[in-house]
Amino acid sequence: MKRILFILTGVAVLASCSRKAETFSVIPMPNDVTIEKGTFCVKGAGIKIDPAIDKESGEAIGRFVQALETATGKKTKPGKDGFDFKYNPNMAAEEYFINIDNDEVDVEASCLGGFVYACETLKQMLPAAIYGGKKAKANWVLPCAKIFDQPRFGYRGMHLDCSRHFWSVEETKRYIDVMTAYKLNTLHWHLTDDQGWRIEIKSYPRLTEVGAWRDGTCIGKDMDSSDGIRYGGYYTQDQLRDVVQYAAARGITVIPEVDLPGHMVAALTSYPELGCTGGPYKVWPRWGIAKDILCAGKEEVFTFLENVLSEVMDIFPSKYIHIGGDECFDPFDKEAVFPWDVCPKCNARMRQLGIKKGPEAKHQLQNYVTARVQKFINSKGRNIIGWDEILEGDLAEGSTIMSWRGTAGGIKAAAKGFDAIMTPYDYAYFDYYQGPERDKEPLCIGGNLPVETVYSYEPLDGVTPGAEDHILGVQANLWTEYITTPEHLYYMLLPRMCALSEIQWCDRDRKDYNRFNASLDHTFAILDAMGVNYSLDCRGLVGLGRKPARNAAELAEYLEKNKPSW
Ligand code: TNX
């Protein structure tokens, strides 16, 4: 039953808490919410945790309790009536149930996902200061409510490019915290590209000694310029494992991407023998599509890939390994002769495979590379994800397509019986401008993607009837060519990722832009408390760092003016 009732009459039940609960502004909106009369005071509440609850879920609950104690400044009472976390084996992995009445909060789930999401919903129902990590004066009550909730899509991803610009372990964890708050469950980590190799690979040390560093970075859109400043960085395997674990504790799987056979200039610079010409190559200081890619004719390239991917699979336990596959040949460069066209070894390989000469030949050769790598990854019990270019050949069973050049790739893949993840650039590229006033925004790669456009995306539109189950979910991508600071990173991410979260989580009929837009005020307060930047372009404050000066009175007035219409 889908319903939402707002009967916030504000009856005070416990003397230490005030009468009225906050407005219900949870993003993504739970799928079944009933707000009832009354409030539950969380200050110094009792906490019971069912011993049948697994250790990871117990730890997630522990983090919630810790946040509660810090923000309210009052210890909870273990074993006493109040919050009652119960194991319910009949619930799906990401499903949860919350029942708040005047003196008890029942929370039920079967495992980590469900408990994490229940806690996140509770946090968003509380004053934003719960996210602040310090004691705060606030109205520490939850409204009485019943919430039944589970996500629409099983794959709810966000991507992060750390090759073009590098983000520290601490920053990446903060990114994961923000994803957790909006119930995303997959981080697609773009770890290698032309401009920098970021994963330590013990059997190929030059990948990080050489490939993690570039001599300079182009200035603005002048691709031939360079600021002359050495730039780079990489993660040690211990650091990568630490991030994987941090994410896993929050119900988030990290999918690593090793982009191949294109976007490999950093690796070629480290080991020039992996290219068709043998180089020399230079870690790219500019953006775009590089002509130099891995040689598909040399056996040692496949040995290299297998060794690298073995270490990658050792670090990342994810079911999926992303092998890239995008932009091996610049589609806009019609005149170009690509290295594979003229490389004797690639040509010998084509002859050996019976590939006929012609414009399709190089795509068929890419298909051979994909299939070989896929076979290797499958032999380790994992599956591949590839950008939609890999659809251009005959795909082996079990590959998943990431549809970025619009939705057509994903729709075609699903119709052919392949799984697909939708990341169409026209709705899900967060490196694009946030509106038409480009001159007021920081420099971007291009595009125009306001939060409302993101919100309007419906992933099953156009999908062949009967093939819907092949659409595993939705992801947005954050490429960082033009993004150099965390302040800018979060400005690009938020609140567009909040809009994304409703596409991923909410049933079709639960989406409502007006309600979502009104809820953003609470989200902005949450992000303020987390110390994370966001864009206010959707409030007409265009550009980086254009936040209204908000003292308490201004904020109250602002919120009053922007009250939800429902
Ligand atoms: C295309 S999306 C790319 C990236 C760029 C991005 C910029 C994809 C698979 N490849 O290499 O960073 O455009 O928007």
CATH homologous superfamily caption of the domain at 32-149: Chitobiase/beta-hexosaminidase domain 2-like
Name of the CATH class of the domain at 32-149: Alpha Beta
CATH architecture of the domain at 32-149: 2-Layer Sandwich
Average pLDDT metric: 93
Sequence stretches where pLDDT stays below 50 over 5 or more residues? 5-15
How many angstroms does the end-to-end distance come to?
Answer: 20 Å
**CATH fold-type name of the domain at 32-149:** Chitobiase, domain 2
- Per DSSP, the total helix count is 17
Largest sheet: 8 strands, parallel
Features:
binds ligand TNX, Chitobiase, domain 2, 19 strands, about 30% helix, alpha/beta, about 575 residues
Q: How is this structure best summarized?
A:
The protein is of the alpha/beta class. Helices cover 32% and strands 16% of the residues. It has helices spanning 55-72, 112-125, 169-181, 206-209, 237-248, 265-270, 299-315, 339-342, 344-353, 361-379, 408-415, 425-428, 451-455, 486-493, 496-505, 513-530, 552-561; strands at 32-41, 46-49, 77-78, 82-87, 96-100, 105-109, 141-149, 155-161, 186-190, 192-193, 196-197, 213-214, 231-232, 253-257, 320-322, 383-387, 400-403, 419-422, 471-476.
